[in-house]
Write a structure and sequence with these properties.
The chain is α+β, with helices and mostly antiparallel strands and 256 residues long. It is built from six helices and eight strands, in the order H-H-H-E-E-E-H-E-H-E-E-E-E-H.
């Protein structure tokens, strides 16, 4: 019974919101019962459209997006089931559960499909939910997944780890307002990644700078005015140079 179990850490990894998007019929029906596509056709879409990054047919892109959304609904079901198990075991009220993701997928927002090394919102803005801290609410502060380990350390009442770059998300009033970095290190070349193909971003409040090494291109976006990141203002924003300065030391930081 309660009180008889030992503290534990559990990592649960759902791979289901991932290509090829071939959800089972019951999940299709939850989202769109009118969808008649069968699983062979779903796999055909993956092989002939997604793998080839072919965005020429908007209807196929919309269909891929819908199949992706169905997978999201599928994983919602698994998470609901997981919470039900924890509740049945009588341990839910003694746990902290953190739900997050590593990336999203693109559906022609920036000319592609899947998750190639781009730094736009559709790929890098991910959910972060924490259950069991005794507080409820939604936070729109800019935070990073490097903040998750310090948050766990804080929740267990342990001493902060100096080498962690992140900051505990709790208590939220103590969270410092600061920028977030991200990087996609090239994995494809035979010698362990080509520096010339890396991508980086740095975001402060609603302004984001991106550097794509493969085309030596800088981009700056005002996410408040331009949430779809279609209007590159690197040449017109006075603060662009300052943002570049903050990103440059991060470029292959362990080699510089």
């Amino acid at each position: 019974g309660a009180g008889q179990y030992k503290p534990f850490f559990l990592w649960l990894h759902y791979m289901d919101i991932h290509e090829p998007y071939i959800p089972e019929r019951k999940y299709v029906d939850m989202v769109d019962p009118s969808l008649t596509i069968n699983q062979d056709e779903m796999y055909g879409l993956f092989q002939n459209t997604l793998l080839k990054r072919d965005v020429s047919d908007p209807a196929k892109v919309r269909l891929l997006k819908k199949l992706y959304d169905i997978h999201v609904r599928e994983v919602d079901t698994y998470v609901q089931e997981f919470f039900g198990i924890l509740d049945k075991l009588g341990i839910l009220e003694d746990l902290v559960v953190i739900i997050t993701s590593d990336h999203g997928d693109e559906f022609n927002e920036h000319g592609g499909l899947s998750h190639d090394d781009k730094m736009y919102s559709e790929l890098i803005d991910i959910p972060l939910l924490i259950y069991g801290t005794g507080k409820s609410g939604t936070c729109d502060t800019l935070v990073s997944n490097v903040d998750i380990p310090p948050t766990i350390i804080h929740l267990f009442g342990l001493e902060p780890v100096e080498s962690f770059e992140g900051h505990s998300l709790l208590p939220l009033e103590d969270y410092p307002e600061r920028g977030c970095f991200g990087e996609a290190i090239d994995q494809r070349s035979q010698r362990g990644g080509d520096i010339e193909k890396d991508s980086y971003f740095y975001r402060e409040k609603d302004v984001k700078v991106i550097y794509r090494a493969n085309i030596d291109r800088w981009e700056v976006y005002d996410l408040k005015e331009d949430p779809a990141e279609l209007n590159n203002i690197v040449d017109t924003l006075p603060a662009a140079e300052e943002l570049k300065k903050k990103l440059k030391p991060r470029v292959r930081r362990w080699l510089s």
